[in-house]
Design brief:
Elements: H1 3-7, H2 9-16, E1 22-27, H3 42-53, E2 56-61, H4 69-76, H5 87-96, E3 115-116, E4 122-123, E5 131-138, H6 142-164, H7 169-187, H8 189-205, H9 207-216, H10 224-227, H11 232-247, H12 254-273, H13 278-289, E6 300-303, H14 307-319, E7 324-327, H15 342-351, E8 356-359, E9 374-377, H16 385-391, E10 403-410, H17 414-433, H18 437-445, H19 450-459, H20 465-473, H21 478-485, H22 488-491, H23 499-512, H24 516-530, E11 534-536, E12 543-546, H25 551-554, E13 574-575, H26 578-583, E14 587-588, H27 594-613, E15 615-619, E16 626-636, E17 642-653, E18 658-661, E19 670-671, H28 689-742, H29 748-777, E20 780-794, H30 801-804, H31 810-826, E21 830-833, E22 843-846, E23 853-860, E24 867-870, H32 872-880, E25 885-891, E26 898-899, E27 903-904, E28 912-914, E29 919-923, H33 925-928
Parallel strand pairs: 1-2, 5-10, 6-8, 6-9, 7-8, 9-10, 13-14, 15-20, 23-25
Antiparallel strand pairs: 3-4, 11-12, 12-13, 15-19, 16-17, 16-20, 17-18, 21-22, 22-23, 24-29, 25-26, 25-27, 28-29
Helix pairs in contact: 4-5, 5-28, 6-7, 6-12, 7-8, 7-11, 8-12, 8-14, 9-11, 16-18, 17-18, 18-21, 19-20, 24-27, 28-29
Length: 945
């Protein structure tokens, strides 16, 4: 968006505000930052615009801001311009160790939940593996060194001659061109030769055209830092522009330069023809040492700055027998199905059709290659920030190996020597700080164009060899890096672990997580309604081979509420289990994946007619009919924003009494045919509005209020602090301007008027935010609607002799529950009775010393023998939670209760199905026998056991 576009803000906003926006903004290398009083960048102004029209915004940055809270405060103003209107707000947050809207976690500090070891100690394994950089040094000699020497002399002559003419546009253009030649030479002889030949051709064949271009060219050459953001094609266009600028007024020297260019290009061609480039030989040796020739399953990512070098490497690697793919700036992002695109190449690399991927900086962002752990920087970028971006392609979440980073450096060249020193210093500092964050912040110490500026000045003769290293590395020291690594961003990041809290949260996450079995079951059922063909892959857990995606599923991507990538016309083999998908390089389909979400939407659409009329079910546990009403409720604030929404179920008995039920209760019911005529009287009862409010809605609203108000009060405190501080500062300005006016100081009148206007604006802002926060705290229940109704009928077979034996006795079950709860408490566990919530288990038991969670289903028998029943929901939950589901059977409840040996993962027992009531049983005697496991399941929900 240009400054002209931003000037039309008032015209743009009304239209944008009609659309609901959820945004994720990622800041890279301060592109969004600005420092007053300089002009805001268009990116920063765009960030402000998006902030003001977005319902939700997630602002991500991996770039610390030089340890400068003032700069950091400006960055956070893109989240809330009032809460961070003054730097005092962030300083106060650092003292309190808390800030609204803000969470800081570095990759290096992130760990998995702690695990207790056999010796009793706790270990918190890091989420991210190590980065192991290695400098691959080599020396050039013979014809290759002669070429380097000749190019260096040519660059010096041109640079010094341009510098002698002063800092005009042509001199700067020459400096840029010469730096490009040096970078291309450091990349590959092939890249240099192409650049030289292209310039020579343009000089020889298009002199007049170049002079026209020079006259039409914009007066400003891009800043060196902007060059680092250019794609390959944009760099080529820039080179043509620089050629044109450097030609103006130099027609008499064109022929001489052409001869020099062709002469150097011929030397480069001779080096190529000799097939003895030292760097390529070093690459081949590395491939042999790391086993790439012997093991074709190993993956390698190679980065280069230039498309010419990419083309050169691809051909050489193919000649060595490798399957090679590329990603460069000339490729579209595309899709996994569209050949020749970036995502297609990424998928080919993941699946093994490509062993070596060669990429330019176009792959430095947005590419996920955590299945590869070896990276080669064939040339070292002169923008050190690129090093971290390149490493980030493989060093990311899901990487299971330490990442090996090989940096190729010619140590007997000027550029190679200083870059080798830079890499050595960075590694020294990393070792001293014991912190990989050093690589994250190198761009703060060495700005994007720093190395290029220093080398251009060196070739222009502004200083000698003895000063080069000092100028290049003057800020690269441990003290500087330590200050940046522990700046304002880090000041809010706690590294202390509250083990008990983490164990409880891990247990809660384990209990509530959406398991692969449930996702697979839903996909299998929903696929039938969408006519999506699915073939279960029997030897892999929760894995499917899908057919072509039906058009009805693709239609959902056209809905205005669709916020996901397009639904693919065909998906590769996929699994709902993350580990299976990663291990076998499969697509991982889970909630949030386009295929899952399109199936979910289609299932909801197909269910609407059935929900509108309701359904009938049988229950073994009920002697009389009842009605189960399902409700959806939303909590909305005073601004009309939906804060939370939840599903509730109320069971209404024939006597009018009502109970809150978990919606999962329906999993224990058996579908019934059409209800009898006349309908049971419970059908005609009015809705249990009071019970719904008292048991469900009021607690729901109070729960949301507690969290919401606490959050808003933190925001309000920061806003009061920030804006009041600014008002105080403006008060001082007004007082000083008023004194100056009375003393006749020129301009004081204008300064006073400006300060008064500023004071009035801040006063209005504070009042507006106070009112806004008050309305955000004003939460109400809205959109409460009954979604559907289920009629629950007593099962007609419930009194049959074989079925009556399956029905539990409430008194016996109560005795068993009390006994199990006391048993777990006696072992020092944290125990909760959840049997009334119909979750598929009765008790949660957590050992805080080991972190072990048990979801316990309790069964009680009056005597020493009898039948143990599992309902459909209990059986399903047992199958889905094999890692933590336990069966506790208590016998002799009528006399002296005895707990039988607890059984983990009881779904693997040989349960007998009673098909007419869809329940499962086994005898208690089976528990005292050696465990008889059922045959490995071949269902699509589970693979081999």
């Amino acid at each position: 968006m240009t400054s002209l576009d931003l000037a039309k803000r008032d015209e743009i906003l009304p239209g944008l505000r009609q659309v609901r926006w959820d945004l994720v903004i990622v800041d890279e290398a301060h592109r969004l930052s600005w420092t007053p009083p300089s002009r805001k960048t268009a990116r920063y102004a765009l960030g402000e615009l998006l902030r003001d029209i977005s319902d939700h915004m997630l602002l991500l940055t991996a770039t610390p801001h030089k340890g400068d809270p003032d700069n950091f405060t400006l960055f956070l103003q893109l989240l809330d311009q009032d809460a961070y209107a003054d730097v005092r707000s962030i300083r106060e947050a650092m003292e309190r160790r808390h800030a609204p809207f803000y969470l800081r976690r570095t990759k290096e500090a992130m760990v998995y939940f702690p695990e207790r070891q056999s010796d009793g100690t706790w270990v918190a394994r890091k989420v991210f593996t190590k980065r192991i950089p290695r400098t691959v040094s080599f020396a050039i000699d013979g014809a290759e060194f002669e070429l380097y020497d000749e190019v260096t002399k040519f660059v010096r002559r041109q640079s010094e001659a341009a510098a002698a003419r002063g800092d005009d546009r042509r001199a700067r253009a020459v400096g840029f061109l010469m730096a490009l030649y040096q970078r291309r030479l450091a990349s590959s002889t092939y890249a240099l030769r192409h650049s030289l030949e292209n310039r020579a051709k343009r000089l020889g064949n298009a002199l007049k055209h170049a002079e026209v271009l020079a006259r039409e060219a914009p007066p400003d050459i891009p800043d060196p830092s902007e060059l680092e953001e250019l794609e390959d094609s944009e760099r080529e266009q820039l080179e043509r522009l620089l050629d044109a600028i450097t030609l103006a007024g130099n027609a008499d020297q064109v022929q001489e330069e052409i001869q020099q260019l062709y002469g150097v290009a011929e030397m480069a061609q001779a080096v190529e023809d000799g097939n003895a480039e030292a760097k390529l030989s070093k690459l081949r040796s590395l491939l042999e040492d790391e086993g790439f020739f012997a093991d074709r399953s190993k993956r390698l990512l190679i980065f280069t700055e230039f498309k010419d070098t990419l083309d050169y490497l691809v051909q050489k690697l193919k000649d060595m027998g490798f399957d090679v793919g590329t990603i460069h700036g000339g490729m579209q992002i595309g899709s996994r199905e569209q050949s020749g695109t970036r995502l297609f190449t990424e998928q080919q690399f993941k699946e093994g059709a490509i062993q070596i991927l060669v990429a330019t900086e176009a792959a430095g962002e947005g590419i996920n290659l955590q299945f590869c752990h070896i990276l080669v920087n064939y040339d070292i970028p002169w923008n050190p920030n690129r090093l971290e971006q390149r490493m980030g392609r493989i060093h990311r979440y899901g990487q299971t190996h330490d990442c090996l980073i090989f940096n190729f450096v010619a140590t007997n060249t000027i550029e190679g020597r200083v870059l080798a020193q830079l890499l050595h210093k960075l590694q020294e500092i990393r070792d001293a700080l014991d912190d990989d964050a050093v690589f994250n912040v190198v761009g703060e110490v060495l700005p994007a164009a720093h190395i290029e500026r220093v080398l251009r000045d060196f070739y222009a003769g502004k200083f000698g060899n003895e000063d080069l290293e000092e100028r290049l590395l003057k800020n690269v020291d441990e003290t500087h890096f330590r200050a940046i690594c522990h700046n304002a961003l880090e000041g809010l990041a706690s590294r202390k672990l509250n083990l008990e809290m983490l164990i409880e949260r891990r247990a809660l996450a384990q209990e509530r997580r959406m398991v692969p079995e449930s996702i697979a079951r839903f996909i299998t059922d929903a696929a039938g309604y969408a006519k999506l063909q699915l073939k279960a892959v029997g030897n892999l857990a929760h894995t499917f081979e899908p057919g072509r995606t039906p058009p009805v599923l693709k239609s959902y991507e056209r809905e205005s509420s669709w916020r996901l990538p397009p639904v693919a016309s065909r998906y590769p083999r996929f699994s709902t289990d993350r580990r299976t998908a990663d291990t076998n390089r499969l697509e991982w389909v889970t909630p949030g994946h386009p295929l899952f979400e399109s199936l979910r939407r289609h299932a909801a659409t197909q269910a609407e007619p059935s929900l509108s009329v309701g359904a009938s079910y049988y229950s073994l546990d009920r002697e009389r009919s009842s009605r189960l009403d399902f409700y959806r409720a939303r909590v909305v604030d005073g601004l009309g924003h939906v804060i939370h929404e939840r599903l509730f179920a109320i069971e209404l008995s024939v006597d009018g009494s009502a109970q809150l039920r978990d919606p999962s209760l329906i999993g224990d019911l058996v579908p019934a045919p059409a209800p009898p005529d006349p309908l049971p009287s419970v059908v005609g009862l009015p809705e249990a509005s009071h019970a719904l409010n008292d048991l469900a809605l009021a607690p729901f609203l109070e729960e949301v209020k507690l969290e919401r108000v606490a959050e808003l009060e933190r925001v309000a405190a920061h806003i009061e602090l920030s804006l009041t501080e600014l008002l105080n500062k403006v008060d001082l300005e007004m007082g000083k301007a008023n004194d100056d006016r009375e003393n006749g100081v020129v301009g004081a009148e204008g300064r006073l008027a400006q300060a008064e206007n500023r004071h009035a604006e801040l006063w209005v802002r504070r009042d507006r935010r106070r009112d806004e926060l008050a309305r955000q705290k004003a939460l109400t229940l809205q959109g409460v609607e009954r979604l559907t109704t289920v009629l629950i009928l007593p099962h007609p077979e419930r009194n049959a002799p074989d079925i009556r034996a399956l029905r539990p006795d409430p008194a016996t079950e109560g005795t068993a529950m009390d006994f199990v709860i006391k048993h777990e408490h006696a072992r020092g566990r944290q125990v909760f009775d959840v049997h009334e919530r119909d979750l598929g288990y009765d008790v949660t038991s957590l050992d805080l010393s080991t972190g072990e969670l048990r979801l316990i289903e309790v069964k009680g028998l009056a005597g020493a023998t009898g039948l143990i029943r599992l309902t459909p929901n209990e059986k399903r939950v047992a199958e889905d939670r094999p890692d933590c589901y336990w069966l506790y059977v208590v016998t002799d409840c009528a006399s002296k209760p005895i707990l039988q040996t607890p059984i983990k993962n009881p779904a693997q027992l040989e349960w007998h199905e009673v098909s007419k009531v869809e329940h499962y049983y086994l005898t208690v005697d089976a528990l005292s026998q050696p465990m008889q496991l059922k045959e490995p399941s071949q269902s699509p929900y589970r693979g081999s056991q």
